[in-house]
Amino acid sequence: MSTATISTPLSAPLTNTNVTSLVDRRLLHETVIDQLRDLIVQGELAPETKLNERVLAEKLGTSRTPLREAIKFLASEGLVELLPNRGAVVAPLKPGKMKEVFVVLGALEALAGDLACRNATEADIAEIRGLHYHMLAHHARGELAQYFRYNQQIHIKFMECAGNATLAQVYRGLNAHVKRARYLANLSRERWDKAVQEHEDMLAALVKRDGARLQTLLRDHLANKLVMVMEALAIPRVAAER
Amino acid sequence: MSTATISTPLSAPLTNTNVTSLVDRRLLHETVIDQLRDLIVQGELAPETKLNERVLAEKLGTSRTPLREAIKFLASEGLVELLPNRGAVVAPLKPGKMKEVFVVLGALEALAGDLACRNATEADIAEIRGLHYHMLAHHARGELAQYFRYNQQIHIKFMECAGNATLAQVYRGLNAHVKRARYLANLSRERWDKAVQEHEDMLAALVKRDGARLQTLLRDHLANKLVMVMEALAIPRVAAER
DNA sequence: AAACGCTTTTTTGTATGCAAAATGAAGTGA
DNA sequence: TCACTTCATTTTGCATACAAAAAAGCGTTT
Fold first, then answer.
1. Do residues A33 and A114 share a domain?
2. Chunked in runs of 10, what are the mean pLDDT values of chain A (242 residues)?
């Protein structure tokens, strides 16, 4: 997402006394945004965790100012909730919210699929096929984490093929929410196999450039994912809806 | 969106020396977010305007800190762009970006229309009908600003009827972009009439609860809106695509 | 022991200070 | 005239300071 442009040593002015300048090209509050987002998405900061500014700033090695700016940014993304005069918490993972997000994601992915069928080059399709087979391999070996990795990449590649950066951005934002739930999921082999079969069908539809079919496949795929997440959410928690 | 809870004078402690406390229940950086967003959406801060922190903070009557937090928030919404070490600018209104946004908005509104056909109560429909007739009246009198007002309200009400807060939130964010273009638009009577006719059809579809039809109507409606915006964007500017 | 008032501590929200980077204005030489 | 330095000014990015609000103790009373 971010290709840091590092000034070449040769072209850099010699007045540069600071050695670290080769490393910290990025702005502090931007790295803090990414770090904090990762902590939340990876589940290290669990939903509803209070974000203590002093502690977090220390943990991330900055002062409170850039941290607060990062928190505001992520609040707009919806990953954290602001409580006036009481700071911020990691956005809760309510089943109702998940349901809403999946409905929207379904529409967005369907749109992306339709666009991808029109715009994808043969090279794009070849790349997706490659990712698909990697995914199949990890599925066969039961390597869940790696499976998820390629699964995500395929969906992201679909978005890229759609050629609509705005669509991709909105997708990423909502997807971040959903990814948090993944770490709770206890995927049954049966459901897992089904999801893989759905991916087979999706790839076939893309190859045939059957946009209408791909749309419905994606919508169904998302609906099934939702069911899985809901099950995972229902088991370990007391009941987060409120 | 924000219903400020004002503490009743009677329950307020008498140690309170500050008279303004009755007003500023809301957090400063939150009001700054709203103020800044308004300035951008209303076009007072034109696209590509540089946001000078010192000047803006003074204008909004705060220090730079809450302003910077607001800027980060709106950057995540996409209304401002962050330029590392060079501050922030109001997000440019590129035709390409508009096109992308309208495609996504089309999908979101179509989804909302479909959901609304299932979920809207008779009272909801009555309210939309009311807004619709207000809109017709302003259209007949050629009152563009008022027309837009009710037009917006109808679309927002559709979103509400869909009963998906996440959908509504994403919609609002993207819609803010589009609203900025409105002030540039020079609506021809012909296009205006057409848009009104489309609204007639949409209302009819909702009444019949014909979700499929409403979806296509909304998609077409958005596509037509895009054409209008593109024309408006093409005329007054040098050529913003880059 | 639960409910309350009170004080102390912690935490948040905002303003200010300071250093680094960017911008702009002369000035110099080709 | 134009390019290129150099230096002063402005502006941004981050850290810190301070005030107000919330939370946590802690006796006291019932």
1. no
2. 31 31 64 97 95 97 97 97 96 95 97 97 97 97 93 95 97 94 79 95 97 96 91 62 40
- Residue nearest C13 (alpha carbon to C1'): A85
Number of domains in chain A: 2
Tens of pLDDT, residue by residue over B23-43, are: 445 777 789 999 999 999 999
**A chain contacts of residue B2, beta-carbon cutoff 8 Å:** none
**Which residue of B26, B27, B103 is in closest CB contact with A164?**
B103
The answer to whether residue B240 sits within a structural domain is: no
The CA distance from B12 to the nearest CA of chain A, in Å, is 18
Distance CA A170, CA B175 (A): 13
Residue A226 lies in a domain: yes
Residue at B69 is within a domain = yes
A74 neighbourhood in chain B, CB within 8 Å? 76
Of the three residues A34, A57, A90, the one that is the final residue of a domain is: A90
Tens of pLDDT, residues A24-58? 567 878 899 999 999 999 999 999 999 999 999 99
Cα angle A72-A78-A83, degrees, rounded to a multiple of 5: 60
Protein residue nearest nucleotide C23, by CA to C1' = B86
**In this structure, are A110 and A82 located in the same domain?**
no
What amino acid occupies position A40?
I
**Using the beta-carbon criterion (under 8 Å), do A73 and B74 form an inter-chain contact?**
no
Dump strand ranges (E) for A41-182.
50-51, 80-82, 88-90
Q: Identify nearest nucleotide to residue B64 by CA to C1′ distance.
A: C15
Q: Which residues of B touch A77 (CB under 8 A)?
A: 76
Residue A28 included in any domain: yes
